[in-house]
Design a protein that fits this description.
single chain, two-stranded antiparallel sheet, disordered N terminus, globular, Aminoglycoside 3'-phosphotransferase, Chain: A, domain 2, 10 helices, mainly alpha
Length: 277
């Protein structure tokens, strides 16, 4: 965990490494830099919780640490204990992020916080839906919108505003030599409700192995109570699917580079409405 005092040094360390990574487009570099700046700004705002888990510098060697996706999905069975310990530590890390409470929902950097989680969440949902409109069938767009409106009141009982990463998946969790180093890609971080970060655990980005999920939740519960995210899950997954599809359509990668995640989210939408017929 990088302290507030060392946040600038850690960010500088990341920026210094960025040009050395082959295959990155200018768009990707700008997005990475935006995430680093946002994390440092959030870091400076927090005074009571000891900082956010910025990526730690790895001394003495070129930084080429693997994402924890490979640890969870490709590890051999005799590495179960190691994977469970890592999952526990990642759960604690997410809980420490959520300890950073804020007075409202929205973008704390822009100082536009609101006390109503529905208005904040609806704004993000509508942005994603607009990106999907030229691409998805009108009937599917209508089903998404109707389902959203019918279930919006679920947000009245959420855990409360705190810093939320909003892209908490294995690809953004850095592991080096089996140890958690920190979290990257803070560009989408906002003041939201903790349940939003749990959507990734159930939306296909994480291993479904109970030997991973159980210690992850135990690690989180060791810091703060696990929010009741299950009741919100279909609603949150709808929002995630719309945001992801909109992202791939906007970048014109839905039928090439990002075809797998596009198909996964498109299939979720179709299955959701079949189940509700």
């Amino acid at each position: 965990m990088v302290s507030k005092k060392n946040a600038g040094a850690a960010a500088g360390n990341q920026i210094q490494r960025l040009p050395k990574q082959p295959g990155r487009s200018l768009h990707q570099l700008n997005a990475a830099l935006d995430g680093i700046r946002r994390c440092c700004q959030l870091q400076r705002q927090r005074k009571e919780c000891g900082g956010l888990p910025l990526e730690q510098p790895v001394r003495g060697e070129r930084f080429d640490s693997g994402h924890c996706t490979s640890v969870f999905r490709q590890g051999r069975p005799n590495h179960r204990t190691h994977r469970q310990a890592l999952a526990y530590e990642i759960g604690r890390c997410l809980a420490l992020i959520h300890l950073n409470r804020l007075p409202g929902y929205g973008d704390p950097i822009q100082n536009n916080l609101t006390s109503d989680p529905c208005s904040y969440f609806t704004l993000k949902f509508e942005e994603g839906l607009e990106e999907c409109r030229p691409h998805l069938p009108i009937s599917l767009i209508k089903q998404c919108l109707d389902y959203y409106k019918e279930n919006l009141n679920l947000l009245k009982a959420v855990d409360g505003p705190c810093i939320v990463h909003r892209d908490f998946r294995p690809g953004n969790i850095i592991v080096h030599e089996g140890r958690l180093q920190g979290i990257i890609d803070w560009a989408g971080a906002r003041s939201s409700f903790a349940e939003e970060d749990f959507c990734w655990i159930e939306h296909g980005e994480w291993s479904n192995n109970p030997h991973i999920k159980k210690p992850f939740l135990a690690g989180y519960a060791g810091i703060r109570p696990v929010p009741d995210y299950i009741r919100l899950l279909p609603f949150l997954r709808l929002n995630r699917a719309i945001a992801t599809i909109g992202f791939t359509v906007k970048r014109k990668t839905w039928n090439n580079r990002d075809s797998r995640i596009y198909q996964h989210n498109r299939q979720f939408l179709e299955n959701l409405f079949e189940a509700n017929l």
